[in-house]
Amino acid sequence: MKIAQKTIKFLTIALITLITATSFAFGDQKKHTAENVGGEVNTQEEVTAYIQHHLKDSHDFTFFSYTSDEGKREHFSFPLPVMFWSSNGLVAFMSSEFHHNDDGHVVVDKDGMKFAKIHSKIYELDKEATSVSFDETHHATNAHKVLDFSITKSVVGILLAALLMFLGFSALARQYKTRNIPKGLGRALEPLVIYVRDEIARPNIGEKKYKKFMGFLLTVFFFIWILNLLGLTPLGFNVTGQIAVTVALALFTMVIYLFNGSKDFWAHTLWMPGVPYILRPVLAVIELAGFVLIKPFSLLVRLFANITAGHFVVMSLIALMVTMKEAFGPVASTGMSLALALFIMVIEILVAFLQAFIFTMLSSLFIGMAVEEHEHH
């Protein structure tokens, strides 16, 4: 039975890698150009552009693209709501009006205003402008950014993770009302909940105060873990690889430990006892910088950098079938690419859990430092 389960897990990982590789290499039949993001890639420059495009957020949800026999680009996707604040107020429409074009050549006209999407960012064109003008560095010269509130692909991933967490923990809570031992998905969730409580919250925050922060720690742990796992599927999510998401998570942690800091915490931070008075203001600045800047920065950069690097490495290994097919042939390069990508995907499954654990562990450690009560003799 155990051997069968291991075989199923291995075949699942292999299938995910194969689907991802196939969509990368053979999902399109056109040359990858500025006007055709996501087409067939044949050179190292096109591979790099493809990977960079994947790592960015998107205003639509594209599963794969292909070129029909008539030479027309077809996208198996669905549009997402585009909402932003322009010079004349709130504007909303569906992302399909951009026609899957990221280079700004498609201009959307709404209520007398013109908008374009350039490198996954939405710009409002200046008055009287009918198209986007670029300088020698390909920066728009007659358009400016808007305040974007769109439901992007990353937001869809966040909502999906929230829904999965809500369904899973709601089922676990209902089972506890009728039975002592949960079953099904609840039996898989219970050990993780106990692990976060006994191995992360209690040792770092303390027996008396850990319960107050269990809700946040469980949410952060499962939120990051589920999003990391979703990023390994062919759906193409890269939510925790978006710097805005990791910044928001780090800010939540910072606000919690700063607003729950004990009197002893603030006394030792702002007016550290046991040191000369002339050094206390200097140490106060250093301590505040540590809690307000350095600690949140370490949280957000660690998660962002590891997840982004993981996606980059996996896609780079898959791209070996493109960049090395002339040297080794298409069959050998594809086999080598899939073998290496499968190996890295197995490691990334461990990294998905590890990064969720590290973020939760450091958050509980910072909270514990802030709420700790010192003994006075």
Mean pLDDT: 79
What overall geometry do the principal axes of the alpha carbons give?
globular
Low-confidence stretches: 7-11, 13-38
Distance between the termini: 60 Å
Number of strands: 9
Percent of residues in helices comes to 55-70%
User: How big is the Rg?
Assistant: 25 Å
Structural class: alpha+beta
Could you spell the SSE succession in H and E letters?
HHEEEEEEEEEHHHHHHHHH
Describe it for me?
There is one protein chain. The chain contains eleven helices and nine strands. It has 377 residues and is an alpha+beta fold. β5 (103-110) and β6 form a beta hairpin. Residues 7-11 and 13-38 have low confidence and may be disordered. It has helices spanning 2-26, 44-55, 153-178, 185-205, 210-230, 243-259, 263-270, 280-318, 320-323, 325-328, 330-371, and strands at residues 60-67, 73-79, 81-86, 89-94, 103-110, 113-118, 121-125, 143-145, 147-148.
What is the topology?
Elements: H1 2-26, H2 44-55, E1 60-67, E2 73-79, E3 81-86, E4 89-94, E5 103-110, E6 113-118, E7 121-125, E8 143-145, E9 147-148, H3 153-178, H4 185-205, H5 210-230, H6 243-259, H7 263-270, H8 280-318, H9 320-323, H10 325-328, H11 330-371
Antiparallel strand pairs: 1-2, 3-4, 3-9, 5-6, 6-7, 7-8
Helix pairs in contact: 1-11, 2-8, 3-4, 3-5, 4-5, 4-11, 5-11, 6-8, 6-11, 8-11
